[in-house]
């Protein structure tokens, strides 16, 4: 089987889908890897690193895609890229078909089997393949590093001849995978951390990391049976804002990670609340791509409002491109072996991972709901 690894084309994307160490393990299992020359550059992996690991390095699009059975990517491909995919090939990437409706439709019409990584079930068996978790871990870590670099204060408490410096106070909104890693990183740097989440199960996770859990006082549970958050009513959002008002005003850094699947991110910090924050404090809004948890966040930009730096960058994960790529790549290896059956990819729709992740197959968009959403988005 031949796996093609193209260079990512989205501006600011520095990760690569397969790192050299994964290439070596796949090559040992007799899989052939073809890498687009320079695809690893953003993550500091050279073409020679890949050659040594057993890949061939291609300079032409034809050489890369013509015989590829599987294309391994991070972001959804453009229509220009899809044009080069072989009919019957498979693609693994973070697809988000509702956002990339035209590309999804094109993938189906080109007979490509598309595996959308964002749909992986959060089950024990899929844990090692879970790129959302691995990349959220990177995002949570990086958010705190960026905040620590941006705030004009120490994170740890310091007792020096020049006086005692109080530790930084960090507030984390949303205690899922990214939020928990943000808490852990801020704690390692010595900050005093408080965190808030609508899922009651989050309390134990937050407290196990040595942070204080802020009780949301919700009248009804805001979570699904699968453990995902559900949208809050306007009254509940107001109560949530009331619960965080004081820690936000007293804090130096706020990292926001609150997301509800398939929804705009909830606005937990209003413009009015930003005004109450200490001048020189920092908000890192990891929900910027989904609309932001702060009303003043500008997606893709860092800005200063009322003396507060608001980081809305969309490429924080790419700022840790080496380890982010390694983790993504490890996840992909596991997934490839899950689908591999005697040197061929096999898609068994009785298997939960296949059923949840395969979005296009056999010339069709699989699943009525997504098929209708794509038809509506692309005009039939
Ligand atoms: P996510 O990225 O979808 O959301 C981040 C966090 O924001 C979640 O904790 C969510 O509860 C919280 N949130 C949503 N609305 C909020 C609001 N209004 N105020 C405050 N917080 C709000 O979440 P995730 O990190 O992908 O995790 C989602 C769930 O999946 C969690 O229960 C997590 O423990 C679970 N999970 C399980 C596995 C596994 O078992 N394999 C792996 C990863 C995550």
Describe the overall structure.
By secondary structure, the chain is of the alpha/beta class. It has 2 domains: 2-129 and 321-378, Rossmann fold (3-Layer(aba) Sandwich); 136-314, Rossmann fold (3-Layer(aba) Sandwich). 34% of the residues lie in helices and 19% in strands. It has 13 helices and 19 strands. The protein has helices spanning 20-28, 47-53, 61-65, 79-82, 101-109, 131-150, 177-188, 202-208, 234-250, 271-275, 321-339, 352-357, 368-377, and strands spanning 2-5, 32-36, 56-58, 70-75, 90-94, 113-116, 158-160, 163-165, 169-173, 192-196, 212-214, 253-256, 282-285, 302-305, 308-311, 340-341, 344-345, 358-361, 364-365. It has an 8-stranded mixed β-sheet with strand order 3-2-1-4-5-6-18-19, sandwiched between helices. It has a 7-stranded mixed β-sheet with strand order 11-10-9-12-13-15-14, with helices on both faces. A hairpin with a 2-residue loop joins strand 16 (340-341) and strand 17 (344-345). The two termini are 35 Å apart. The structure holds nicotinamide-adenine-dinucleotide. Nicotinamide-adenine-dinucleotide (NAD) binds next to helix 6 and helix 7.
């Amino acid at each position: 089987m031949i796996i093609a690894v193209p260079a990512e084309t989205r501006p600011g994307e520095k990760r690569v889908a397969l790192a050299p160490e994964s290439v070596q393990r796949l090559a040992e299992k007799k899989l052939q890897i073809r890498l687009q020359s320079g695809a690893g550059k953003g993550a500091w992996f050279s073409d020679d690193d890949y050659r040594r690991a057993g890949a061939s390095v291609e300079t032409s699009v034809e050489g890369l895609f013509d015989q590829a059975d599987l294309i391994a990517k991070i972001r959804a491909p453009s229509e220009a890229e899809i044009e080069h995919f072989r009919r019957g090939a498979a693609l693994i990437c973070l697809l988000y078909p509702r956002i990339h409706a035209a590309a999804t439709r094109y993938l189906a019409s080109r007979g490509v089997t598309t595996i959308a990584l964002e749909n992986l079930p959060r089950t024990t068996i899929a844990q090692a393949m879970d790129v959302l978790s691995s990349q959220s871990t990177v995002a949570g870590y990086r958010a705190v590093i960026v905040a620590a670099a941006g705030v004009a204060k120490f994170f740890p408490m310091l007792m020096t001849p020049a006086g005692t410096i109080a530790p930084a106070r960090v507030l984390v909104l949303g205690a899922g995978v990214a939020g928990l890693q943000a808490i852990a990183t801020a704690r390692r740097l010595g900050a005093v951390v408080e965190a808030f989440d609508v899922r009651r199960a989050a309390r134990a996770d937050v407290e196990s990391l040595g942070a204080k859990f802020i009780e949301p006082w919700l009248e009804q549970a805001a979570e699904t049976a699968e453990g995902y958050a559900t949208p809050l009513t306007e009254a509940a959002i107001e109560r949530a804002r009331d619960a965080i008002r004081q820690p936000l005003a007293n804090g130096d850094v706020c990292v926001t990670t609150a997301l509800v699947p398939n929804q705009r991110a909830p606005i937990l910090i209003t413009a009015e609340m930003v005004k109450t924050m200490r001048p020189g404090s920092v908000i890192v809004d990891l929900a910027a791509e989904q609309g932001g948890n702060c009303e003043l966040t500008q997606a893709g930009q860092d800005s200063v409002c009322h003396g507060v730096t608001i980081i809305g960058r969309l490429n924080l994960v790419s700022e840790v491109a080496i380890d982010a790529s390694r983790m993504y790549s490890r996840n992909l290896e596991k997934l490839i072996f899950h689908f591999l059956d005697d040197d061929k990819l096999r898609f068994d729709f009785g298997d939960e991972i296949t059923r949840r992740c395969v979005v296009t197959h056999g010339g069709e968009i699989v699943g009525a709901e997504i098929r209708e959403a794509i038809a509506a988005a692309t005009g039939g």
